[in-house]
Amino acid sequence: MLRRLFKLSKTLHKYTGLLFFLYFILMGISGVILNHPQLVSKISVPTLLTPASHIITNGNRMAIRETIVDGNDIYLAGRSGVWHSSDNGLNFSRLDTGFPSASYEQDTYSLLLDKSHDRLFAGTRNGLYVYSFLSKQWQTIFFGAAGSEPVMDLLQIKDRLFLFTQRHCYSSKLDTEKFFFLMESLRFDVSNKPTSTRLLHFLLKVHDGSIFGLPGRLFIDSIGLSLIFLCATGVLAWFLPRYYKNKKKTYSKILAMKWVHDNHLHIGIYAVTFVGLIVLSGILIRPPFIKSIVKYNVPSWVLPFEHSGSWLPRIDKAAFDADTETLWVSTRQGLFSGHPDFFHPLQKQTIRVPRSGMGTSIFEVLPNQRLLIGSFNGVYVLSSDHSHFSPLKEENEMARKTFQATGAMIKDGSPTHIADYHHGLISLKGNTHLSVPAQMAATPMSLWHYLFEFHNGRIFRQWLGPYTWVLIPLGGILLLINLLTGLYDWLWRNKKNNVRLYKR
Question: How far lies 128's CA from each of 56, 149, 165, 299, 315, in Å?
Fold first, then answer.
């Protein structure tokens, strides 16, 4: 019985490895690169190599994250950079002189129009830029961040420019040409420090290794490289004996086969547990399993680097209500508000507006002290007393459905359009003459995003359609089978060798 089980295990290990080694090795390569986007931040994938399902259409796929309407001037910003229309949306031109040319670096999260000085600020994944309408070009502004820290939002509060990154806030005088940014003492009420965190968030941190900061990421990189090595040596261990079968064998050839075989076993037995944990976490954070874990929490102590020392939740967006002089900050742990002088910690609001795990994408102040809040879980209006919220509903039929919102256009204090991840720019008023620039479709996809879409399986949507979700769990299960059968085979052979030695 055990011998039959060994033969079955050996067969499964052999054919899952040979048939799917290319997929396994590409998952390892993409995983390592995704952990270090700076390695490929300058590289873009031509549109000819981009699947039709991932070509920008009508401003979808986060091509529109931020908009500004100023009379007949309209500004759009997102993954395709910054665009400007001077005729109320009939025609658009790209503001790209001096702006990053790589798709990854031109991804823009926020805009701020400074009319008094004829300039436009853009907060990007790569840092802060300012566009002069006189010189008609962009310039980089350094604000003291380490490396190229993404700028999540920009606010003008009185005569100062406030800049929000994922963890910090910087400010500088606005009435100047040479900016000098100071880090603000941004604090959050520690009495509301969470005692638990979402299981999904924990598994994401395990999957990329960031649960232990940079050392954790580097360790996961080593495991990814181990997977690549195991795939390559596994194929060579099968191929070389067959290639040399009818050829003259030399000592070097025999030595090469032995090196490949021995190192495949040695690396495999040490890496199998860690590779298995990464694969299992990857399966759980994708459909259909994600639905079964999204409601569960784990103690916050399981994320030692995130909840140690002073607590700083990850910032998504910020807004300023000039009527009440209240600063609002939307974080992954909820909404906070307070005075922008930062003398006191920002206080957490008890009301929980529905938001997706990807965070808040729309956060705007509306008249009468209301807030417009949007994410992949829909768009909502928070009441003036901040006691309740209601879904945004307008005349358009699409607005009655749940938006996967990436941005909003507001004119005269009222939302006129919502940018949806799948459908692009949608008018809430039923009719519009706004025309999203067709040139957006020619925007190349960054290599990092291309690998990200491959790693989560969505790059195959054009061919697999509604069955795309099957790819990741199926591929993960096949890899787990390969790992477990390889471990079983090693244990079986090791046991047999020990028995032979004992009999001698």
Answer: 24, 9, 10, 36, 17
Answer whether 419's CB lies under 8 Å from 65's CB: yes
Helix or strand (DSSP H, E) at 141: strand 137-141
The predicted model scores a pTM of 0.91
Q: Look up residue 479 and give its two tokens.
A: 């890899």
How far apart CA 281 and CA 400 sit, in angstroms, is 35
pLDDT of residue 242: 87
> Which pLDDT tens digit goes with each residue over 437-456?
888 999 999 999 999 999 99
- 290-319 pLDDT per residue, tens: 988 988 999 988 887 766 556 678 999 999
66, β-bridge pairs: 77
Owner of token pair 């670096």:
105
DSSP-based three-state secondary structure for 75: strand
pLDDT at 431: 61
Show Cβ contacts of residue 49 under 8 Å, excluding neighbours closer than 6 positions.
Answer: none
**Nearest by Cα to 22 from 485, 478, 490, 486:** 478
119-176: pLDDT as tens digits: 999 999 999 999 999 999 999 999 875 556 899 999 999 999 999 999 899 999 998 8
- Tell me the C-alpha distance between 490 and 297, whole Å: 37
The residue length of the chain stands at 504
Please, what sign has the CA dihedral across residues 446, 452, 458, 461? positive
Amino acid letter for position 460: F
Domains of the chain: 2-38+201-298+472-503 (no CATH), 57-193+311-442 (2.130.10.10)
DSSP state letters, 262-312: HHHHHHHHHHHHHHHHHHHHHHHTSTTTHHHHTT-EEEGGG-TTTSSSS--
